[in-house]
Amino acid sequence: MSQYPISSQMRAFVDKTESFTSADTSLAGLRQNYNRMCQAFTPPPPQDLLIEDFSLGGVAVRSYRPTTATPSDGWPCLLYMHGGGWVVGGLDSHDFICAELANELQVLVIAIDYRLAPEHPFPAAYDDCRAVWQAIQMGQGPHVVNQRRLVVAGDSAGGNLAAALCLGLRDAGQALPLAQVLIYPGLGGPADLPSRRDCRDAPLLSTADSDYYRALYLGDDAQLSPYGMPLLATDFSGLPRAFIAVAQFDPLRDDGRLYAERLHAAAVETLLYPGKGLIHGCLRARRQVAEVDQLYDCLLGYLRSEGLTQV
After folding, report:
1. CATH code: domain of residue 284
2. How many structural domains does the chain have?
3. Domain for residue 2, yes or no?
4. Is 280 a catalytic residue?
5. Pairing mode, strands 59-66 and 108-112
6. Three-class SS state of 277
7. Range of the domain at 202
8. Active-site residue 156, yes or no?
9. Suppose 122 and one of 172, 228, 230, 291 were both cysteines; which one would form an S-S bond, judging by CB atoms 3.0 to 4.6 Å apart?
């Protein structure tokens, strides 16, 4: 790790994260260790948030909303897809960021508990996200959503799913979100991208790790599709404007950069956050690492500028 000049705060975050590593490399072991690690970084939720589990489109979801009355035109809403390589994680693992976004923005956040690979390879997770989107469009669920102020977001594998959802909706001629927010997304860039080499053994995610999760998600018989790996798309026009944050020391860094370039070339308004000093998975270091707080400040500012706020 010495070749990656991260701050002392970030190094302490890495050390704490790696303390949950176990010799049990089975799928069950990976999931258990990941959940334990995430729990260690999850603070108690703000007292003035209402948190509720229910189902949308046959998919389990969790909502976070302020205790204030529903706005007259419905809740501005952030639809969130969690990271974890499509293999680990769930509603609890990313509780920290969903609660943070709902509380800071005073909006409704809905997190999707999509099916995980390898038991449910592509397109299961993508299909689940589409099903939740369709249910929201049909006005299902306990909350009234303002369809004109609906943003999709995700980190890592969740960033992949958010981007794929936008592609699928555009291709089907269906209603699109106001914007897409992709945090250090894995988008299926080619193996010879510089970040694959330069960050092959980066903290918390190596190139080999990335390849492992991608293989589990796509499965042996999966036909390569832009809905599985969005950088395979040939047309990037007509997509929602985008906020893409990458991490400097991350083998997936250049996926986000390349996607931003292709969106920009297709005249899609795109903001690329360069993530200096950041590593993959660092969203959990909120209020622990100064450069992570800078990312949150930029992200929250972007969402407020898109009208995703009640304050």
Report:
1. 3.40.50.1820
2. 1
3. no
4. yes
5. antiparallel
6. coil
7. 8-305
8. yes
9. 228
